[in-house]
Amino acid sequence: MTAPREWAEKDFYADLGVSSSAKADEIKQAYRKLARENHPDKNPGDKAAEDRFKRAATAYDVLGDEDKRKEYDELRRMLRSGGGFGGAGFPGGFRTTTSAPGDFDFSDVFGSASAGGGFGADGGLGDIFGGLFNRGGGAGRTARPKRGADVETEITLDFREAAKGTTFPIQLSGNAPCTTCHGSGSRSGHPVTCDKCGGVGYITQQQGAFGLSQPCDKCGTTGKVIEDPCPSCHGTGTVHRTRSITVRIPAGVIDGQKVRLAGQGEAGPNGTPSGDLFVTVHVRPDAVFTRDGDDLEVTVPVSFAELSLGGTVTVPTLDSPVKVKIPAGTPDGRTLRVRGRGVPKRGDSAGDLLVTVQVKVPTTLDPAATSALRTYAQAEKDSGFDPRAGWAGNAK
Where are the CR-type-classified zinc fingers (predicted)? Predict the structure, then answer.
């Protein structure tokens, strides 16, 4: 998962090959195409394809999430304005490395903001990025609670489970809320306001026109102090344990896609919010079906007579089988479309079922069938039919 501090040096739209005005469906389709083409299972040993696959997954993690995409777009707009932050009243502009007095380093800016520091007291960079990424803060603001760590795990599903959607039980080991103090860290359940920072979480020192903020060393930026630590968690509010949760996988998930479960990561300290759980889904190939986006593909073996004379065949789907009519004179390899019997989409719609007919040639024939076939072959020749007419310049 890419942190906001890394976004400034990445062009996620270029990584997916879409414009910055692309709709959500366009972004999803672009990601699915790149993931399918560059998946390591299809390109063993190809480091370039593996890198493209990882970049696409990282880009979709941001652009596929509405809130993250808004933050990313806002950052891009801010960096383009006046060539950086130079046009906003900061001398020297905004650069990615610190090479001269007046320059700003991305790591300094984001690092200070995330710790509650930075130029916060007078509307400086701490306020700008604090508002954009909901971090940091300036004078008069209360401390932003820390949150628990995000957790990543992987699961493997059958093709049909991924296409139709399913639930999947997993076990996670990590920090969970303490059941004794209910996550507060306090035996009484009532942490007190830090008297050193006044509950703000940081201490500000005025330096000319700017206020330099530093994390409070007494409360660790939480703004609260535990005076009666819980004996079970020793005041942290969390304990390490294994828990079981059921993950709901939406219909249509593709191989390599991540599913985000908000608040299902590790618990935050002292009752603060939990992190998120990111589940990477791997999909096993199916013996019958493949897919192209939301369309389900299947190849059906048929006889020469069924293609020549026409007929009806029964075709499997993700649910109950359907009957597909084959028109007389259908060529081998033709694909027939059945509307709405493909991979489910959001709502009540679904992709299509694409049925490709493929002639199955018998390897042995009994005498009666052989005689009948010879009679037909002669009649076919007598009618003037030439299967190679117009092929290879009518070579004889």
Answer: 165-242
The answer to whether the annotation marks 162 as part of a ligand binding site is no
Beta bridge partners of 157: 283
SS3 category, 170: strand
Give ∠ CA 99-1-52 in degrees, rounded to 5: 85
Q: Is 216 annotated as a binding residue?
A: yes
What's residue 356's pLDDT?
97
pTM, two decimal places: 0.56
Sequence-distant (6+) residues with CB within 8 A of 262 are: 276
181 is in an annotated binding site: yes
Residue 233 known to bind ligand: yes
Q: Is 71 annotated in some ligand binding site?
A: no
Answer whether residue 348 is part of any domain: yes
Q: In terms of Cα–Cα distance, which of 166, 154, 355, 338 is closest to 252?
A: 166
Cα separation values, 293 from 109, 118, 190, 197, 368, Å: 41, 46, 53, 55, 47
Q: What is the pLDDT of residues 51-77, one digit of tens each?
A: 888 888 888 988 988 888 988 888 887
Per the annotation, does 32 bind a ligand? no
Domain span holding position 356: 289-382
Element (H, E) at 326: strand 322-326
- Give, to the nearest 10 degrees, the angle between helix 125-133 and helix 106-114: 70
Q: How many domains does one find in the chain? A: 3
